[in-house]
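Lab channel / #folding
Pinned by the channel admin:
"Please post every new chain as: sequence first, then the structure tokens as a reply. Keep commentary short and put observations after the output so the thread stays searchable."

First post following the new format, from NK:
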Amino acid sequence: MSSVDSGAAPAAAASRRAGLAAELARWPAALRIGVALMAAIVLAGIVGPWLSPYDPIEQDLLNALLPPSRAHPFGTDMFGRDVLTRVLHGVRIDLTIGFITTYVPMVYGVVLGALAGYFGGWFDTVLMRVLDVAIAFPFLVLIIVIIAILGPGVQSIYIAIFLVAWTMYARLARAEMLVERSKDYVLVARTLGYGPGRIIFRHALPNIINSSIVFSMADFVLNVLLVSGLSFLGLGVPPPIPEWGSMIAEGRDFLLDAWWITTLPGLVVVLTGTALSLIGDGLAHRLGQRQSSLL
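Reply from TO:
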């Protein structure tokens, strides 16, 4: 019995590895490139700060505005701080804020939208009126107004984006659920006596979540750019915390003499946005393939 078990374990592990390899082989090129770029950025943000000998906040005025060199690959800023070190620390800050401001509103909005689409009635009517009011205002203007009321800071960013962003996911999930609730498997589940909770979250939600996942990648890109833009305007992460947008804003007065202060963090923002966009395009293609194979 033990010899059978010992032989079955390696076989199961080999089968899982083969299945994973087959799944990776079916990934579109855009998805593979995007995941590789994003993994490199995340790894740099995790490992880089530990390897850098410089403090991201401590000033060293004797080494201010040094151009890129072996000692400072991204140069130094007007306070003598190593730009590469600050960029690497900024990976954690920007991606953490981007992740939270994307997926917390996504979960909240998808749940509300799914419930409204399934049950309909007064709950659906009230939700739609709230969505109409939110969409009537420009997204960025509404966020800036909320942050101006609450005051600059990371917590204000979380609150402002959450209050606005969940509405898009709710509208998307509601539209998907309106189609899904009339399908045969939902009618069969009702006939068998399944409760609404089981039907919505166990059976219908996996079929409507794909569009929200794909949209979340584009939303992630916009949120990373939004956080950088708010910091550039002085409404985001306060200095001297190393955040990409604030670094770009700090270097704008030195753009002609010390271009690296603004340009290199800006290139990292572009690279991150490109990686997330490729992941979004690849996911849309791959999930579309899966959906077609099930039909």
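NK: The chain has one domain: 83-294.
TO: also worth noting, The longest helix spans residues 83-119.
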